[in-house]
Amino acid sequence: QSEAVTAIVGRAELLAAFFSLAAFLVYVQGKHPVWSGTLFLLALLSKESAMFAVTLFALHVVFFGKRNPSPIGVAVLAFFLLRIAVLGSLGIDEREIGFIDNPIASSPLSVRALTASALLWKYLGLVLWPYTLSADYSFNEIPVPTSVDSRVALGGIAVTLLILIAWKLRRLPGFAALAFLLPLLGFLHVLFPLGTVFAERLVYLPMVGAALGLAFIVSKLGYYRSHFLTLTLLVFAARTIVRNQDWKDNETLFRRTVETAPGSARSHFLLGAELTELGRAEEAAASFERGLDIYPQHVGARMSRGEALKAAGRVEDAATEFQRAYELSPHEDIRSRLVDELLVVGRSRARANDWAGARERFEYALGLSPRSTEAHNQLGLVLERQGDFDAARQRYEQALETDPNYVPALVNLASVRMRGGELQAAEALFGSAVSLAPDHYEAYNGLGIAQARQGREAEAEASFRRALSIDPSLDAARDNLRALGKTP
After folding, report:
1. CA–CA distances in Å: residue 259 to residues 134, 254, 264, 267, 301
2. What is the pTM of this model?
3. pLDDT at 133
4. CA–CA separation, 440 vs 407, rounded Å?
5. Residues 200-224, buried b or exposed e (16+ Cβ, 10 A)?
6. Separation of alpha carbons 121 and 130, rounded Å
7. What distance in Å separates the CA atoms of residue 36 and residue 477, rounded to the nearest whole number?
8. What is the DSSP letter of 438?
9. Contact 362, 342 (CB under 8 A)
10. Rounded distance, CA 383 to CA 391, Å?
11. Model confidence over 288-310: pLDDT tens digits?
């Protein structure tokens, strides 16, 4: 049961079990009924799973005689009222449970019953021989049975044996068998779905019954009792020590988890997230990919893989991943992220002189976000490169309709208009650009060209020199000054 101790979240299980057992001990003594009720309420407030400890009190009545159960009933009622007052309901809405966490949450009762039998067999195997342990058993580490397979059959046999033990042997062995089985039923999704399909910490309370059963067996061993106990303690202590090493840091835990639960998509996602935090983008992307092979519909993992690919410099692959995420869940925030990635890819293709590829990406971005100022502006630049100046001009104008103060579009539109001989209009646009961005050297250089072509050489010289004062390495401004017969 190391998971309930090593994981911080397991404190809830520890507290629930501690207060449940304390309440049970006080209840058995029969001297302080109010204290038993108070302690059990504390158990319920620690974690609602303590509700399944009610079976211990009921079994004690059946096997060992009556005690006053009213304080336990009062504690349960008080807990129900508090839960309803705070959360508005007693259980979890199955619609709030993610498919990856519990793929059977929304399944019909027949499938849940088959799964319950398979899960019981797996829990029993871990109790008897915890050789392989995992921090995650989510989709699809434990395939959901749709018919009676070996797991389901073995689980059914185990239930039958436990019931037979309770019926035939009675007293302590019967109590122990049912003290293991009945609390465990609450974690098998038959009564209601849980937020996780399977977890080692969930069997912490049912282990009380297993421990009592072991105590009964040991009591019958006679001379070999001490030898058996010593061997059991050594073996299980060694297993615990080895398992605890897996929890020394996140990377170690998640790497171990993908080894012990390779069918769990989330274990790969967790490792990918940790590798991302460590700055190992390529490894992170590979881990996310392995998880997506198991569960391709996970939008968050696709977004995370896109971010990892982007960090690794693989902008094309990143955009493709964001596109897949958008196709799975076309929400506005994903649309916005995808548009940003398409712009990055488009600019990358433009730098490589792949104008057709860049145009394709910018047009796709505009299909998602028709009022994207940057997409219109970038598409205009591509159209210019392809010689379609009229279309480029329209794109710049559309960009400025969305944002009249968008300086790059002002400068680009001014350049196109100046190319078409509209010098006064171009000068006005360049003037607007430098008033909005006083350090925009390209706008000053364009302004100087427009002024020079209108014969205002003094103003043009001032504009060129202003551009050089901002960027002394601007060769275009130097050449323009020389064309005016001035020394740069």
Report:
1. 9, 9, 10, 9, 19
2. 0.83
3. 95
4. 9
5. bbbbbbbbbbbebbbebeeeeeeee
6. 13
7. 89
8. T
9. yes
10. 7
11. 999 999 999 999 999 999 999 99
How many C-beta neighbours within 10 Å does residue 297 have? 13
Distance CA 76, CA 123 (A): 27
Comparing C-alpha atoms, which of 200, 198, 181, 196 is closest to residue 240?
200
Taking residues 72-87, what's their average pLDDT? 93
Q: Which residue has the tokens 């303590």?
A: 50
Task: Give every CB contact of residue 303 below 8 A, 6+ residues apart in sequence.
Answer: 321, 322, 325, 334, 337
State the average pLDDT over residues 180-199. Answer: 90
- Three-state SS for 83-139 is HHHHHCCCCCCHHHCCCCCCCCCCCCHHHHHHHHHHHHHHHHHHHHCCCCCCCCCCC
Evaluate whether 204 touches 3 at the Cβ level (below 8 Å): no
Q: By C-alpha distance, which of 305, 301, 354, 350 is closest to 329?
A: 301
Exposed / middle / buried, residue 76 (Cβ in 10 Å: 0-12, 13-18, 19+)? middle
- The predicted pLDDT at position 93 comes to 67
In the block, which residue shows the tokens 């309709």? 401
Instruction: For residue range 399-455, list pLDDT tens digits in order.
Output: 999 999 999 999 999 999 999 999 999 999 999 999 999 999 999 999 999 999 999
pLDDT of 143 above 70: yes
**To 5 degrees, how large is the angle CA 85–CA 90–CA 94?**
130
Average pLDDT, the chain: 93
> Sign of torsion, CA 102 108 110 111?
negative
pLDDT of 475 strictly over 80: yes
Tokens 């304390």 locate to 22
pLDDT in tens, 161-177: 999 999 988 788 999 99
Gyration radius (Cα) of the chain, Å: 35
Question: Which residues are within 8 A (CB) of 66 and not within 5 positions of it... i.e. 6 or more apart?
Answer: none
Q: What is the largest CA-CA distance in the chain?
A: 115
**Whether pLDDT at 34 is above 80:** yes
